[in-house]
Write a structure and sequence with these properties.
Elements: E1 2-13, E2 20-31, E3 35-39, H1 46-53, E4 61-66, E5 69-70, H2 76-86, E6 87-91, H3 102-112, H4 119-128, H5 144-157, E7 162-166, H6 174-191, E8 195-199, H7 202-205, E9 210-215, E10 218-222, E11 229-230
Helix pairs in contact: 3-5, 4-5, 5-6
């Protein structure tokens, strides 16, 4: 069952001779529980695609469906609520609140939404990510890898339909990157989480179950289409 789909997704900037086709007709389906990596060089359109998938920007044309909902036409307030409830984000910059401890950072989005925290589930996430002995620490008392674990826990805590990771190891050394990627994969499998990761790094992409390559705003190959697909 698809939890994420796009139909003829386009994002254009400028016009005339200055027209830039950041996305030029992307059709993509991601099944529930998949761990997919979208790979491309700088300027390929991969970050633009992630922004469209996460409702952080609106397409010029086309549709984005998340958990069966067309988010392309949602008004700003409704889109904000939908993002908070259905989409988890992990960025390379962590984006933790410095005055809140680890546990408070993890449950913050749930509390902002006025929902009750599923303490048993959050505890499971904390244990799997190896944060049990750090839940009372502030972000400044953590290493980069530990902060990224907190960011992953925060993204998982609300049980989102999809988790979008944008260059999640961009600020980490190679050893810590492998640790974080391993934990991302383990948590995805443990909690049945759908994960879409954006990266320019081929080695990092190999961690995923499916690799989608994007060039010039178009999907060029997709290992998830019954074998290798090439445009």
């Amino acid at each position: 069952m698809n939890v994420l789909s796009t139909q003829n997704l386009k994002k254009y900037y400028g016009n005339g001779e200055n027209l830039v086709k950041a996305l030029d007709g992307v059709n993509l389906d991601v099944e529930r529980g998949e761990f997919a990596a979208i790979v491309g060089t700088s300027g390929s359109g991969k970050s633009t695609l992630l922004h469209m998938l996460g409702g952080l920007d609106r397409p010029t044309e086309g549709k984005v469906y998340v958990d069966g909902k067309d988010i392309s036409d949602l008004k700003d307030d409704a889109l904000c609520v939908f993002r908070r409830r259905k989409i988890g984000f992990v960025f390379q910059s962590y984006n933790l609140v410095p005055v809140l401890n680890v546990y408070e950072n993890i449950v913050l989005p749930i509390e902002l939404d006025g929902n009750t925290v599923d303490k048993n589930y959050v505890e499971q996430v904390i244990v799997v990510l190896g944060l049990s002995d750090r839940i009372h620490r502030l972000p400044s008392q953590l290493s980069g890898g530990q902060q990224q674990r907190v960011a992953i826990a925060r993204a998982l805590a609300a049980k989102p339909a999809i988790l979008l990771a944008d260059e999640p190891t961009g600020n980490l050394d190679s050893r810590t990157s492998q640790d974080v990627l391993g934990l991302l994969k383990v948590t995805g499998e443990r909690f049945g989480q759908t994960i879409v990761m954006i990266t320019h790094n081929e080695e990092i992409a190999q961690t995923a179950d499916r690799i989608i390559r994007i060039e010039d705003g178009r999907i060029k190959s997709d290992s998830g289409r019954g074998g290798d697909y090439h445009a």
